[in-house]
Amino acid sequence: MRVLQVGKFYPPDPGGVETASRQTAVALASLGIASEVLCFAGPGPYDDAGGLVPVTRAPVLATLSSQPVSLAYITALRAMAPHFDVFHVHCPNILAALALYLVRPRGKVVLHWHSDVIGKKALLALVRPLETWLCRRADLVIGPTAVHLTASDRAGEFVGKGAVAPFCVDETMAGPKLADPAGVAAIRARFGGRRLIFALGRLVPYKGFAVLVEAAKSLPEEAVVVIGGGGPLAGALARQIESAGLGERVVLAGRIPDAALSDWFAACDIFCLPSVARAEMFGIVQLEAMAFGKPVVSTAIARSGVPAVNRDGVTGLLVPPGDAAALGAALVRLVGDAALCRQLGAGGLAAVAGPYSPAAVAQALGQAYACLDRGASPGL
């Protein structure tokens, strides 16, 4: 069996779907399945010669509503299609759907359903017939959690061909072994040994950082919130912090280099994912925090996999999205209860060593792919 992953971008380009594409390549290799990747070319630079799998990066002509447009992408799929048995498509990606529709490859089609198209109503109306064709054409649909499949706008088209294969923390991501004791000590010293609440992500509306800033008003003086990441809301968040008089309690750290992320995860006491919208469908950063034994406070976003990953009372605490008072209360509770932090941190360690381990991901993917050979239903 030869598999072609058809996605948007691929590491070193950053992003959750990109991380999932790499993890899929690793899992397929562990199963003895040969694979390649077709994706768009980002800013680079790239050095794919020594990578795990061959990668074809198609140049982009333009980007419309977050969707890269590339004639080379379609041309490449047409040339590559006869050499592959399975086309593993990371969705949403309307150009991939168009390319498959035009090329009509003979092989099986697997959809990796990361998210529905959320918002963008005009675009959705335009591309819906094409997406409908792709969903019906699919032989297998993989979701990172069951919620991705059962709560999808396309759930009715997934019945009988859905399977769950979660994400994991892989060796290229932040991990305890990569933390530098001196770097960790420096971070702790910078904040005077205060209880450190760490949040990480692009500074965009759906990440809910404005809600976290509001929640920080209720924190005791021995706690400090550090938000890592850059983005268009940096200025607005800085003004919110200043106007609320929270300059000593909330710090915008800017974009943290990948090499330093392990130090920050190791140094923090609590990790917070305050996202407010379904654009946050999994939150793989939650798993990174769990790998360090940190309790997670995140939000119970309806029809999202986020609360399935952070299990309330097991790996962390869940609060309603957008509720600053509830978020503040959960953080205050953990700041004042070291025993509960240890208990939830242990639950997180068990999760990343068990259902969210690389071995579990490979096993789940293997079980799903086995259904392609047998023509059997994956179960969902």
Give a quick precis of the structure.
This protein has 380 residues and is of the alpha/beta class. The protein has helices at 16-30, 71-80, 94-103, 121-137, 146-150, 155-158, 181-190, 209-215, 234-243, 258-267, 284-291, 306-309, 324-335, 338-353, 358-374; strands at residues 2-6, 34-40, 55-58, 62-64, 67-69, 86-91, 108-113, 140-143, 162-164, 195-200, 223-228, 250-254, 270-273, 296-299, 316-319.
Which structural traits does this protein have?
380 residues; 2 domains; alpha/beta; Rossmann fold; 15 helices; 15 strands; six-stranded parallel sheet; seven-stranded parallel sheet
Give a structural overview.
Strand 14 (296-299), helix 12 (306-309) and strand 15 (316-319) form a beta-alpha-beta unit. Helix 2 crosses helix 3, helix 7 packs across helix 10 and helix 11 crosses helix 14. This protein has helices at 16-30, 71-80, 94-103, 121-137, 146-150, 155-158, 181-190, 209-215, 234-243, 258-267, 284-291, 306-309, 324-335, 338-353, 358-374, and strands at residues 2-6, 34-40, 55-58, 62-64, 67-69, 86-91, 108-113, 140-143, 162-164, 195-200, 223-228, 250-254, 270-273, 296-299, 316-319. It has 2 domains: 2-168 and 357-374, Rossmann fold, CATH 3.40.50; 176-353, Glycogen Phosphorylase B (Rossmann fold). The protein is built from 15 helices and 15 strands. With 380 residues, the chain is an alpha/beta fold. 41% of the residues lie in helices and 18% in strands. The radius of gyration is 21 Å and the shape is globular. The strands form 3 sheets. It has a 7-stranded parallel beta sheet, with helices on both faces. The chain has a 6-stranded parallel beta sheet with strand order 12-11-10-13-14-15, sandwiched between helices.
